[in-house]
Design goal:
alpha+beta; four-stranded antiparallel β-sheet; globular
Length: 222
């Protein structure tokens, strides 16, 4: 079964950064599980899936985020579902680290001889090609870039079934990360906040989508 190109484009035209949500409309458990599944199935560099998704239902945590994340202030109490995307800390993503070994052995089921070759290749990538191990900030930002692939897929998947969304970067990163970790939501030695997203149903119709023309965006190198 295939989806028409027009259906896909219609979803992209439907999707917008929703400003206000209808508090009386809730996403079904089946539909939100579908959205999360598209995030889980998303590609990542080396297939290491450096993300974790936290679905925030607890009112007190939503209030904490509302009071400290200006980008979520007008959305978090009314949207149906609110998502935090975390990424693994640099120490978790080292070539010799327990997590990377777990992914290669238990998830990818790579034989030991091939595993050693892949580990060497990843070590060269992280230490020499992108020089991630020399700069923890660069390593964190690399992991965040992977998480944005999952985020984008979830936003698109939501739009394809008529659900609105808002990606949110409007928050003081270090302060918000500390506050959430202090609430016991995650171990800050293991994870760090990457980005937030709200999901639900729009309260008002958005203005018409505006984008630069394709000819201004794309250049063909022939």
């Amino acid at each position: 079964m295939t989806i028409s190109k027009q259906q896909i484009l219609d979803a992209y035209h439907f999707r917008h950064a929703c400003k206000q949500y209808d508090p009386h409309k809730k996403i079904s458990a089946e539909d939100f599980r579908f959205i999360l599944e598209t995030g889980r199935l998303s590609p990542s560099s080396f297939g290491f899936e450096p993300w974790k998704f936290l679905v925030i239902e607890k009112p007190a945590i939503r209030e904490l985020i509302r009071d400290n994340a200006w980008g979520a202030k007008d959305k978090i109490m009314d949207c149906s579902h609110f998502l935090l995307i975390l990424v693994r800390q640099p120490a978790e993503l080292l070539a010799d680290g327990e997590y990377v070994q777990h992914i290669m052995r238990d998830i990818h089921h790579i034989p030991e001889d091939a595993l050693r070759q892949r580990q060497t290749f990843y070590r060269r990538f992280s230490e020499q090609d992108f020089k991630l191990t020399q700069n923890p900030t660069a390593f964190y930002e690399w992991a965040c870039r992977q998480s944005y692939i999952a985020l984008a897929n979830m936003l698109t998947a939501a739009a394809m079934i008529g659900i609105d969304s808002t990606p949110i970067e409007g928050f003081p990163l270090e302060q918000m990360n500390d506050l959430l970790a202090q609430q016991g939501l995650y171990n800050p030695q293991q994870y760090k906040l990457s980005v937030m997203a709200a999901f639900g149903y729009r309260l008002h119709q958005p203005r018409e989508k505006t984008r630069r023309p394709l000819e201004e965006v794309v250049e063909w190198v022939r």
